[in-house]
């Protein structure tokens, strides 16, 4: 694949080996300005801002993925195949569907269930279980322990639907209760597509999220706080990026 790609106007030297991927371009900008040293803008196609700087002397990039599996599928494919990126870490927010996982807790997606049809492109005669890269996972857990974070490791649901139309459906057929009984921790919208793309191209991927909403209790962070309340998650993500270089 040649560069620049249709969605990233940069060169391979513009990116570090590890790219942090929030969904929101403004969150990408915030991270670059508040957590990286000497950050510079390396991509702004369609306003999807990407920056590269350093953290504790390690070159790290942060670029938005947009919302949903199709969007992160595009950006992760191009970063892996055209820009030499080895590790992509989705960082963002998720909605808890577990009574023991609370707002502001961190969830690390060991696996990612999905209701998406993203897998069909690989022509697999069966199912595929999208999982995180173990090396990234174990380093992220070590980073959580290092910073004293309240964290949970397990399965998430990467759903195509932010708003589910369960009106009039009996509880046994409603979306959230069905996933709860299978032990899923939280809902988000990107991890499964990222994990499949990484698996296909022999790269590494991990999803770390802060719980911003609780779908059982109704507790939620206000919109503005969602932008700024993930400091501990960022410490975990950046310490993990540093560990990947060792």
What report would you give on this structure?
The chain is of the alpha/beta class and 246 residues long. The chain has a single domain (12-244), classed as Nucleoside phosphorylase domain (Rossmann fold, 3-Layer(aba) Sandwich). Helices cover 30% and strands 26% of the residues. It has 7 helices and 9 strands. Strands 5-8-7-6-9 form a 5-stranded mixed beta barrel, surrounded by 4 helices. Helix 2 (69-82) runs parallel beside helix 5. The longest helix has 14 residues, at 69-82. The chain is globular, with a radius of gyration of 17 Å. The two termini are 29 Å apart. The model has no long low-confidence stretch (mean pLDDT 93). Phosphate binds at residues 23, 27, 46, 90-93. Keywords: Glycosyltransferase, Transferase. The record marks 226 as: Important for catalytic activity. It catalyses: a purine D-ribonucleoside + phosphate = a purine nucleobase + alpha-D-ribose 1-phosphate; a purine 2'-deoxy-D-ribonucleoside + phosphate = a purine nucleobase + 2-deoxy-alpha-D-ribose 1-phosphate; uridine + phosphate = alpha-D-ribose 1-phosphate + uracil. GO terms for molecular function: purine-nucleoside phosphorylase activity.
Going across the major beta sheet, what is the strand order? 5-8-7-6-9
Number of helices: 7
Roughly what is the average pLDDT, rounded to an integer?
Answer: 93
Helix content: 25-40%
Biggest beta sheet attributes: 5 strands, mixed, barrel
The CATH level-2 architecture is identified as 3-Layer(aba) Sandwich
The CATH superfamily is identified as Nucleoside phosphorylase domain
Distance between the first and last residues' Cα? 29 Å
Computed CA radius of gyration, to the nearest angstrom: 17 Å
CATH domain class: Alpha Beta
Q: What portion of the residues fall into strands of 2 or more residues? A: 25-35%
EC number: 2.4.2.1
Family: Belongs to the PNP/UDP phosphorylase family.
Organism: Faecousia intestinalis
Enzyme class: transferase
């Amino acid at each position: 694949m040649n560069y620049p790609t249709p969605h990233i106007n940069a060169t391979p030297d513009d990116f570090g080996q590890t790219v942090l991927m929030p969904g929101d371009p403004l969150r990408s900008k915030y991270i670059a300005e508040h957590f990286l040293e000497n950050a510079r803008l390396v991509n702004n196609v369609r306003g999807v801002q990407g920056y590269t700087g350093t953290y504790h002397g390690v070159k790290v990039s942060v670029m938005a993925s947009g919302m949903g599996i199709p969007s992160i599928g595009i950006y992760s494919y191009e970063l892996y195949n055209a820009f030499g990126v080895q590790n992509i870490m989705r960082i963002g927010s998720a909605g808890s569907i577990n009574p023991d996982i609370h707002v502001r807790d961190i969830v690390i997606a060991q696996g990612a269930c999905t209701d998406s049809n993203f897998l069909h492109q690989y022509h697999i005669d069966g199912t595929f279980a999208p999982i995180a890269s173990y090396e990234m996972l174990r380093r992220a857990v070590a980073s959580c322990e290092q910073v004293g974070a309240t964290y949970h490791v397990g399965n998430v649901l990467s759903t195509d639907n932010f708003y589910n139309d369960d009106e009039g459906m009996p509880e046994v057929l409603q979306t959230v209760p069905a996933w709860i009984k299978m032990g899923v921790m939280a809902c988000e919208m990107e991890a499964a597509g990222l994990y499949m793309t990484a698996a296909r191209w022999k790269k590494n991927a991990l999803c770390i999220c802060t719980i911003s909403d609780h779908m059982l209790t109704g507790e939620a962070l206000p919109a503005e706080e969602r932008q700024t309340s993930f400091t501990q998650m960022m410490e975990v993500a950046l310490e993990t990026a540093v560990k990947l270089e060792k």
